[in-house]
Amino acid sequence: MGFSRNAERVFLYLCVFLAVISPCFCSKLYVVYMGSRGSDGPDEILRQNHQILTTLHRGSEDQAKASHVYSYRHGFRGFAAKLNEEQASEVAEMPGVVSVFPNTRRSLHTTHSWDFMGLVGEETMEIPGFSTKNQVNIIVGFIDTGIWPESPSFSDEGMPPIPAGWKGYCQTGEAFNSSTCNRKVIGARYYLNGYQAEEELEKVVSFRSARDSVGHGSHTASTAAGRYVSNMNYHGLASGGARGGAPMARIAVYKTCWRSACYDVDLLAAFDDATRDRVHIISLSLGADSPQTDYFSDAISIGSFHAVSRGIPVVASVGNAGSPGSATNLAPWIITVAASSTDRDFTSDIVLGNGAHFSGESLSLSKMNAAASIIPASEAYAGYFTPYQSSYCLESSLNITKAKDKVLVCRHTGSSTESKLAKGAEVKKAGAVGMILIDEVDRDVAIPFVIPAAIVGIQTGYKILSYINTTRFCSLLDACMMLLDFTSSFSPTYLCKQTSYINHSLCQDCFRNPSCSSSCAFFFKGSECINS
């Protein structure tokens, strides 16, 4: 009995001791931002960074080197390192340190468009009154998920030699070597250290190189600077030519985003390298999950500030959240751009058993050959899932017996295209023959579902749910494209209405790009496709 009490006492002391010392030994990745580069050269900045880290590690050079992840020494000054809370607080008080903040997660935001905007021609894209003959000397740096270089959008046919001022290079990696670049895609780098510090390596289901396996980077690069591609379509939909806004401009790739996220320390490294490489414009379609609260602890605000201060304009997306005050990338030195719609729509007809017709958004290429029973997905709940959870068609949430041969009405919140695709796959796996997805956020974005499906807004969704209470039959027809009578592009509700939480009096223009349901390059064996 006495031994047991002593063991309990020792265990209690040990727990208290570990609780006290744990903040000192648990390290995580931080950005130490030190402002402008000043007159010191890159090598001197690197030396000073290591000196600071050696001081933080009480003179241990080995620990200093082990903690170091990146040094920022071209466009601005600073470094990324693994520090504990005590070390982070200590370095924040050192002379010359502007801010210290943790490695924060960022999310991706996502050519007929150019005709719709009044731009004409194929390669030259002449705008009346303005010359674009200098496109071949313009280098656009894309901070994104990489690129699929074999796409016709990135052909270098007929392009002159690479501009003499270019200082970048083509980094080799998985399925990507130095010869993968060409006179169109003139540079490529990738950054993984920040992601590896925060995510399990098993989740990096992507090429460990600048090659794109997500599609987002190829989408944005081709939208802005893709070559003219004739006779492209998505399985017969949207036939015609596709091109970027500046099809003869050069592309430099900075892959910082992987399948699930991008992280601050990698983004800052990309900004730093893009400045050294001498790009002329930086483009990024990603941002924080919530509005920035402080420019000095926001990687995109910091990286873009120093790029702009060196004459490199930075263009960034405003975000897709949709709620008032949710806009991101609103630092006054950034050109903030929102998506908007064009004059076409990809629709799929929904025919209910009482003869009522509704139109939904879809790029599904299949249709139902016969009417089927329709039920809310909440009625097909499985296992430990509640009806509410199953109504969102989450993974493994659907009962196969209840869902088989039915059309399921699922719900969706947020703006992730990937999760919508996953819902369609889950419904198909459960044996259902179709899906209606109720979603008011992305009403005007079509998705290439693997099952007959359509996206509807909340009001249409309620009408369909109301119908289900009486008669339960419907059918879904295949997708088609229709041209709408718009006199100008319109912005979906999630766009330019938001203000900045940092400065409510800040007045900043919000540009719009007609990019919803646009034709673009993707990554499937270099083919062209529709991607939104």
What does this structure look like?
- The protein has 532 residues and is of the alpha/beta class.
- It is 25% helix and 24% strand.
- The protein is built from 13 helices and 26 strands.
- It has helices at 2-25, 42-56, 61-67, 85-92, 112-116, 193-198, 216-225, 264-277, 299-309, 387-390, 400-403, 417-429, 458-468; strands spanning 28-33, 68-72, 78-83, 99-102, 105-108, 139-144, 185-190, 229-234, 237-242, 250-255, 262-263, 281-284, 286-287, 314-317, 335-340, 344-352, 357-361, 372-376, 407-411, 434-438, 453-456, 473-476, 480-483, 510-514, 518-521, 528-531.
- The strands form six sheets. Strands 16, 17, 18, 19, 20, 21, 22 and 23 form an eight-stranded mixed beta sheet that branches. It has a seven-stranded parallel beta sheet with strand order 7-10-6-12-14-15-24, with helices on both faces.
- A hairpin with a 4-residue loop joins β16 and β17 (357-361).
- α2 packs across α3 and α8 packs parallel to α9.
- The longest helix is centred in the first third of the chain and has 24 residues, at 2-25.
- The chain is globular, with a radius of gyration of 26 Å.
- The N and C termini lie far apart (69 Å).
